[in-house]
Amino acid sequence: MTDPMIVSGSSCDIESLRRQLIAGSIQVQQQLIPQLAVLDNGGLDILMEFLLQRRDSTVTWVDGKAYQALYNSDSPQAKEFLQTHFPEGVVPLKSECGIDYRPLQTLLVTQDFQAADRMTLQKMCEVAGAEAVKRKWLYFTEVDNFPITDLQTINNLWLVHSEGKFGFSVQREIWLSLGKNWDNLWAKIGWKKGNNWTRYPNEFIWDLSAPKGHLPLSNQLRGVRVIASLFAHPAWSK
């Protein structure tokens, strides 16, 4: 049901929405951000103010959702605002290896999760080195040696731009909650149904309707060793 305040769009209602967004719960913010994005009378201004107020705080998926709403809008003012204040997005694109994570960020901001999944593997191969780039997949020993900074950057991009649903850390938390049982994990995150593995790419779900932890695929087709190395990585204890 559409909120009548949003339909009317009066200045009084706009101020009420602004207060709700700033002070509201995550659930309220989740609902308000897409509504504000399509509100002609000041909705984008509220989102810009919201992002500026939060820029010195720890980045969460709420920031990602607000950023995405502005990024995907047709407003020249919103685009100028992002270029001025968030030229590299809301997730710091840190790398110990000089890897450019902007292509991955763009795909995640625009919710092209299938292409983002492929790009994730590509970037991880770049981190691993020339041999991994050439073969286009990873050895688990290469994952063991991943810089903490790079793994956290990749994971944070997925977390922040998926409403907290996707990312290696999400998969790891589910795995731990299931007593480190791999078979239960595959079923829980939608990689296996009964005795049948989910077939790539058409049986995977490439949007936010997917089960929590469904993406990224973590080189799943090559067995458990790569994802086990990911879950054992010291990045999650930092």
From TrEMBL:
Residues 95-234 form the GUN4-like domain. Gene3D superfamilies: 1.25.40.620, Gun4-like (1.10.10.1770). One of its GO terms (molecular function) is tetrapyrrole binding. SUPFAM superfamilies: ARM repeat, GUN4-like. CDD domains: GUN4. InterPro entries: ARM-type_fold, GUN4-like, GUN4-like_sf, GUN4_N. It holds the Pfam family GUN4_N. Residues 5-87 form the GUN4 N-terminal ARM-like repeat domain. It comes from the Bacteria. GO terms for cellular component: outer membrane-bounded periplasmic space. Belongs to the CpcE/RpcE/PecE family. This is GUN4 domain-containing protein. The gene is ycf53.
